# Entry
Amino acid sequence: DLAEAEFALNSDAGGGDLDANGKAITYNIQAAEKTYATWEITVRNPGGHSSRPREDNAIYDLAAAIKNIQGFKFPVQYSDMTRNYFKVTGEQLGGELGEAMLAFARDPSDEAAAERLSRESSYVGTTRTTCVVTMLKAGHAENALPQSATATVNCRIFPGVPVSEIEGTLKQVVANDAVQFRQTYEATESPISELREDVVDAVSEAVEQRYPEVQILAYMESGGTDGMHFRRAGIPTWAVSGIFMNPDEMFAHGLNERVPIKAFYDALDHWSTIIRELAGP
# Structure
């Protein structure tokens, strides 16, 4: 019975980080992930002929709401896991960004460090909840005033924060009661999976075959994976991808998403080692 599984391993997250020169920085075991939630926000309007413009306009009103969301930053949050992640990664990365990571790990209330990390798309999600507009649809004809305008707002919510709280914050940020909110589906909140010794040993064996000096640490995934459903069902789940690459070059879900050819083939050996170590006598 699947529900009686001792644990699950996920290939959709985790893996190794390389710096811009191809040096391995850390290997990261995903032990937690943020809550994935999406809203459609809509403005409606009576519309009319485009030759008779109104003072109110669904697209303009939606644009104002979007700009408010763009300009808002959720408060900094952290856990022992995320602070340790920044400590180890900062030590290995070095430079100005590494120093910001170390400063944040020492004191998450360090505003300068948090601001510096917020400018890094690969790391901002580890410091706070994020919400971003990802899609738009509006109007029905070029010669008609828009009767509706809709934006899709995708949020990645720090563990422990209720989805309803984020919706309430977004409504305050938008500051327009005419903007309608619709959550597109029920979000799945999942707990942290504490690391397990035999899993860490198996992953270490696989990683050390390629990068013997790399530190292995637990981290919180900013994105969402199927692991959330297993964790919610009571099955501890860790994501242990075999891919090593520069996180700034991944472009996940984009039309330019990519994986280095060598990393792909190396990952086959990575998984072969882990499975033999855990399934063997």
Notes: DSSP finds eight helices and twelve strands in the chain.
